[in-house]
């Protein structure tokens, strides 16, 4: 079962630029609230009708669905009705697109839970509570994940989607437990409506914005459907944030209003407060690159972490020039508004420094935001993809707005390679990883250093010692590792498609080597 609380259109990358969402407060008069609330109820009813027609009745003919809604809700005009139908279709298509990702995330969680269960059973991990309780909890989790996996696979096979709860599954459970009333539940199911933008309709037909440059004030014209008559207009003042960090968005909105550019608006109600989520396209000046141009003198790599951002600047040939780390420790635990402020301030400082250094292109990890969470709540909060996504979006947007090009790179094993090869020279673990990404972005792959190659015979001997008394499965694994090390030249990062296989093995086995083996901090140079 999936809960749906439809939010504003998400920020996405497109060929025409990027879309930006601005959240503004609407000051609604008391006498106008009833009509706006009534419109929200009609709109949400139309959306649910359209959804049920497609999913339950298998009706995909738009004309028939529109006629059905018009018969049931005659007072809702055609444009609002089509917006509701479009939303219903987008919910269904997005759920179908997300099913493979849900399955992949579920399989990853299942695999992780099974590994954890085995470690508890073997005594590799010592439980803080009675072992029987821990094993029972993990076993129940595995059972639920297996059931979920079967359910998702059936939906993919049958081209269906999970059950949808408009208003939210948690809110439905509260109604069933009588924690909230049915009236409150109805309000949660009908607390917003959407109006799409249109260039031919001066930006937006039903929720049009106006700007008074003399007073520096915004105003919105809301169109209220009236059966058998023309729409009734309501005029409401709109408060757009004036803080420095919102200056760019404010100027973008003013430009869209003056140029009649299309902007979509979702009007939301939260208690007695009303807000407008305004989504519009933004022209960008940077581009996504496949190759770094030869004219680029400096490239910067940004290594994202939840508590710091490591940056390394290199030249076009991959030679190290400069490094810097920007700290943002509070992101691990602060609330939304504070987090947004910290991200804004940190990214601003990052790009001011890059501008002073005359960087023309940035190389950044091509991050895949997958759920890889565990049963540890504190660790899940730190590892949560949400903060990474916010940082990632902020960096890419800032770069594209400021004439800086972006190249995306597969970050596989960059941390391990950086730790083994470049921490020796005084770079921190994050800066070393960033430098590996810089060289990879410039087209260079990391050779195994001679100091590590000399240690390969030692590794082989240590692995052979582990063969004695090893179980069959462990023995096979050790023999494969020994075979790979003996034929290490066949797995050279330069001469084979297995560019990181040897690096990955050496990283796993580095604790078997002597203390002289390169590790972070050996030179004693800080990463300040």
Give a quick rundown of the structure.
With 528 residues, this protein is α+β, with helices and mostly antiparallel strands. The chain has 16 helices and 18 strands.
Description:
The chain has a domain at 18-29 and 192-282: Small Protein B, Chain: A, CATH 2.40.280. It contains 16 helices and 18 strands. It has helices at residues 30-55, 62-72, 78-122, 131-158, 169-176, 182-189, 247-258, 336-356, 377-383, 385-401, 414-421, 429-441, 450-454, 456-467, 472-486, 501-509; strands at 2-4, 13-14, 17-26, 164-166, 192-195, 197-198, 203-204, 207-212, 217-224, 232-239, 263-270, 273-282, 288-289, 298-304, 308-315, 320-327, 361-365, 405-409. The strands form four sheets. Strands 2, 3, 5, 8, 9, 10, 11 and 12 form an eight-stranded antiparallel β-sheet that branches. A six-stranded mixed β-sheet has the order 13-18-17-14-15-16, sandwiched between helices. Strands 1-4 form a two-stranded parallel sheet. Strand 15 and strand 16 form a beta hairpin. Helix 1 packs across helix 2, helix 3 packs antiparallel against helix 4 (131-158) and helix 11 (414-421) crosses helix 12.
SS-based structural class?
A: alpha+beta
Q: Could you please say which CATH topology of the domain at 18-29 and 192-282 applies here?
A: Small Protein B, Chain: A
Helix content: 40-55%
Kindly provide the name of the CATH class of the domain at 18-29 and 192-282.
Answer: Mainly Beta
Q: What value does the average pLDDT take? A: 84
Number of helices: 16
3D shape: globular
Q: In total, how many beta strands?
A: 18
For the record, give the distance between the C-alpha atoms at the N and C termini, rounded to a whole number. Answer: 49 Å
CATH architecture of the domain at 18-29 and 192-282: Beta Barrel
Rounded to an integer in angstroms, the radius of gyration calculated over CA atoms is 28 Å
